[in-house]
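Retro notes, structure queue

What went well: the backlog is down to a handful. What didn't: a couple of records were mislabeled last round, so from now on we paste the full input next to the output in the thread. Example, using Peptidase M15A C-terminal domain-containing protein from Amazonocrinis nigriterrae CENA67:
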Amino acid sequence: MIQELCTCSDTYIKYSGLINPYPENPESLRSLETLTQLIITPVIHKFGCENFKLTYGFCSKDLLKFLNRNKSRICVKVDQHMAHERNTKGNYYCKHLGAACDFAIVGVDSRKVISYLKTLNFDSIYYYGTDRPIHVSWSFRPRRKIWEFTTQNTPKPYSNYYCV
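Corresponding output:
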């Protein structure tokens, strides 16, 4: 699963020959392993491996360069896709640490997936719509926040209590 977390993004796939997708900091690898154990594996057991589609995982420094070139809507300071990676000044890219991924469960309303994720040890969840991938993160100090993003990409507290 770690390899898939590091190589699943469309940008990596497009520029794979030019990007080192793997973490430099061993703490990043440990956080990715914990994300897999505490979030991804239970989701796969609940909804089935055949339905699980990882769309974005770990963001290496090389991948970040290509995402910035393409003017992607990413926010490395808070989204935890860079895990424990550090910049050239030795500071963490993201102050929340932990690790994050985006995924979809094919054929399942994202609100139903969020209802299940709420039972797990998550840090943050981003909801973009019923048929869009979900962002979920894990951290040593979980905040347990769920955000819904409007069509203008503005976050607001998630208030949809979907009944399973």
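Agreed that this is the format going forward. Reviewer comment attached to the example: Residues 2-157 form a domain with the Muramoyl-pentapeptide Carboxypeptidase; domain 2 fold (CATH 3.30.1380).
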